[in-house]
Design a protein that fits this description.
Layout (H helix, E strand, L loop, with lengths): L2 E4 L5 H12 L3 E6 L2 H13 L5 E5 L5 H14 L5 E4 L16 H27 L5 E5 L6 H4 L12 H20 L6 E5 L17 H12 L10 E2 L13
Parallel strand pairs: 1-2, 1-4, 2-3, 4-5, 5-6, 6-7
Length: about 240
C-alpha cells in the first residue's frame, strides 16, 4: 500500500485530502499540530469506514516536532510516496506593506514557507525511496505576481501583503525544488485549491471542500507523463492551463 503525509490535516481542505487519498488506496498519516485534534479527526474517518489513516503530531514550525514525526513515520514505513504541504495560515488582518509589524511577517512565513521547507527536507529521504514520489505545495492564486499587478483584474484592490508574499515565496521554493529534482521520478507542483468554504475563509467562497480537495489530490496521483514545477489554480484556469506566476 502506498503511503502519504498531509500536514495541517485535522480539518478543512487538509482533512478532505486525507479522506480522498485514503479512498484511493493510500495509507495516510494525518499531520496535526494538536495531536488530540488529529486523533479526533481520525476517529471520525474510522467511523465512516475509512481505516487506513493514522494521526501524527506535526507542528511544521517546530524543528523537534518535525524530526520526531520523521522518526515516527520512518519506523512505520521505509517509503513515503506523497507529501502534501497543506499547513498554512493567513495571519492577522489588516495586512499592509508599510504598516504590518515584522513579527507578523515572520509568523506567517514560519508556517507558509519555512514550514514547507522544513518538512520537505526532513522527509525527502523517505520520498526518494518511492518509485513515483509526488510533492504538492498548497498555494493560492493570490500569490500570482502577474494577477496581483493587473490593474484591470477584479481582485486588484484585494491586497494582503503578508499572506500573498509568503505564498509567492512558496511558489518560488516549489520551482527551485522541482528543478533540483528534475532528473528523478519526482513530480513537484504548487496547487491552489480555490476560494473554499472553510473556517479559513469564514465559510465564504465559491468552491466546496470536496472540490478543493480533489484539485489537490489530482496532482498527487499524476503519472510520469504529468507536469512538474507548475502552478495550478483550476477554479480559475482550467487544466492544462496553468496559473500565471
Amino acid at each position: 500500500m502506498k503511503s502519504a503525509l498531509v500536514t495541517g490535516a485535522n480539518k478543512g481542505i487538509g482533512l478532505e485530502v486525507v479522506k480522498k487519498l485514503a479512498q484511493n488506496g493510500f495509507y495516510v498519516y494525518l499531520g496535526s499540530r494538536n495531536l488530540a485534534n488529529g486523533v479526533s479527526a481520525v476517529e471520525k474517518l474510522h467511523a465512516d469506514g475509512i481505516r487506513n489513516v493514522e494521526a501524527i503530531q506535526l507542528d511544521v514550525t517546530n524543528d523537534e516536532s518535525v524530526q520526531a514525526a520523521r522518526a515516527w513515520v520512518g519506523e512505520k514505513t521505509p517509503i513515503l510516496d506523497v507529501l502534501i504541504n497543506n499547513a498554512g495560515i493567513s495571519g492577522a488582518l489588516p495586512q499592509s506593506a508599510l504598516g504590518t509589524p515584522i513579527d507578523q511577517f515572520k509568523e506567517v512565513y514560519e508556517t507558509n514557507l519555512f514550514g514547507v521547507a522544513r518538512v520537505t527536507q526532513a522527509f525527502i529521504d523517505l520520498l526518494r525511496s518511492s518509485s513515483a514520489p509526488r510533492i504538492v505545495n498548497v498555494t493560492t492564486a493570490m500569490a500570482s505576481l502577474s494577477l496581483a499587478a493587473d490593474a484591470s483584474a477584479s481582485s486588484y484592490h484585494t491586497k494582503l501583503a503578508v499572506y500573498q508574499s509568503s505564498k509567492a515565496a512558496l511558489n518560488m521554493y516549489t520551482i527551485n525544488l522541482a528543478y533540483e529534482l528534475r532528473d528523478t521520478p519526482f513530480k513537484v507542483n504548487a496547487v491552489c485549491p480555490g476560494w473554499t468554504q472553510t473556517d479559513f475563509t469564514g465559510y465564504q467562497g465559491t468552491s466546496t471542500v470536496q472540490e478543493a480537495g480533489q484539485r489537490i489530490v489530482k496532482y498527487a496521483l499524476i503519472d510520469q507523463d504529468g507536469p512538474t514545477g507548475q502552478f495550478f489554480s483550476e477554479e480559475y484556469f482550467y487544466a492544462p492551463a496553468t496559473c500565471p506566476w
